[in-house]
Design goal:
Organism: Vibrio brasiliensis LMG 20546
GO molecular function, one term: protein-disulfide reductase activity
Helix content: 40-55%
Strand order of the largest sheet: 2-1-3-4
Structural class: alpha+beta
Number of strands: 4
Order of helices and strands: EHEHEEHHH
InterPro entries: DCC1-like, DCC1_Trx
Protein name: Redox protein
Number of helices: 5
Length: 128
């Protein structure tokens, strides 16, 4: 049973890498991953692909919209690894972490190039 549907940028190598890691830990199939660059996004009229390309979006099983690091924390919590990201949601760190995330998201293709050697995924291929 899907508990969280995540809308990610399938052209971003780092984004694809993160979704792959999540999938490896998703033994209970709690997550559904939707690439905003693919036609499947049309099945979700409440999700604006342009906005979802600016900040990570997800919808939980109650149809609540989650954004940015709230998505990351919820997803990793559902696969049993939320403790890794929990500090990013602590009130004393949250605002700082969210502003860094927004900056990172805006520049994710540059970060991808620097960290993976590839700026964009081509035809679903994100290898170096």
């Amino acid at each position: 049973m899907t508990k969280l549907t995540i809308f990610y940028d399938g052209r971003c190598p780092l984004c694809v890498m993160e979704m792959s890691k999540l999938s490896l830990h998703d033994h209970d199939r709690a997550l559904k991953l939707v690439d905003i660059q693919q036609p499947e996004i049309e099945n979700y009229p409440s999700i604006d692909p342009l906005k979802a390309s600016q900040i990570l979006h997800a919808i939980d099983d109650q149809q609540t919209l989650l954004l940015g690091l709230d998505v990351t924390y919820r997803a990793w919590t559902l696969v049993g690894k939320g403790w890794i990201y929990a500090p990013l949601r602590w009130p004393s760190i949250r605002l700082f972490a969210d502003s860094i995330y927004i900056s990172f998201a805006r520049n994710r293709y540059r970060w991808s190039k620097w960290l993976t050697g590839k700026s964009y995924c081509d035809n679903g291929q994100c290898s170096r």
